[in-house]
Amino acid sequence: MTESYTDKVFEYFRNPRNMGELENPDGVGKVGNAKCGDVMWVYIKVKDSVITDCTFKTFGCVAAIATSSALTELVKGKTLDDALKVTNKDVANELGGLPPIKMHCSLLAEQGLKSAIEDYRKRLATNKD
Ligand code: FES
């Protein structure tokens, strides 16, 4: 555990990868933290059960932005089932750790992706009818 942000967290915050909305996404997840008011959207493109693209939009703190960006990189190219196994700890580890009081921010990234996959699966089920 680290008490302050790592250089990697600041680097992702300053130069976020995969930021912005995806055009015609196959799934969109929106999550928020009622306590701090931060909000995050995760967009995914899926082909043959593999996430081919993933982007995010986050109105939030340094940790929320850095973790959502790191998440998009972690899950691209993964199957939906493998992407669902990615936890907030994996995302935090990718950034060299987070201060304990900021771990909850990384939860938004995990939940945002889960919500996007849920949305994708819902759309799929609806289109089959
Ligand atoms: Fe709200 Fe970080 S303080 S997600």
Provide the succession of SSEs. HEEEHHHH
What is the average per-residue confidence, as pLDDT, rounded to a whole number? 95
Largest sheet: 3 strands, antiparallel
- What is the alpha-carbon Rg in Å? 14 Å
Shape assignment: globular
Main CATH class: Alpha Beta
Bound molecules: FE2/S2 (inorganic) cluster
**Which parts are unreliable, with pLDDT below 50 for 5 consecutive residues or more?**
none
Helicity level: 40-55%
CATH architecture name: Alpha-Beta Complex
Annotated CATH topology = Sufe protein. Chain: A
User: How many domains, as an integer?
Assistant: 1
- The main sheet orders its strands as 1-2-3
Work out the number of β strands: 3
Cα separation of the termini = 48 Å
Question: In a nutshell, what does this entry contain?
Answer:
This protein has 129 residues and is an alpha+beta fold. It has five helices and three strands. Helices cover 47% and strands 19% of the residues.
General description of the model:
This protein has 129 residues and is α+β, with helices and mostly antiparallel strands. The protein has one domain (7-123): Alpha-Beta Complex (Sufe protein. Chain: A). The chain is 47% helix and 19% strand. The chain contains five helices and three strands; from the N terminus they run H-E-E-E-H-H-H-H. The chain has helices spanning 7-14, 62-75, 80-84, 88-94, 103-128, and strands spanning 27-32, 39-47, 50-59. A three-stranded antiparallel beta sheet has the order 1-2-3. A hairpin with a 2-residue loop joins strand 2 (39-47) and strand 3 (50-59). Helix 4 crosses helix 5. The longest helix is centred in the last third of the chain and has 26 residues, at 103-128. It is globular. It starts with 6 loop residues before the first helix and ends with a helix. The mean pLDDT is 95. Residues 33, 36, 38, 60-61, 63-64, 105, 108 line the site of FE2/S2 (inorganic) cluster (FES).
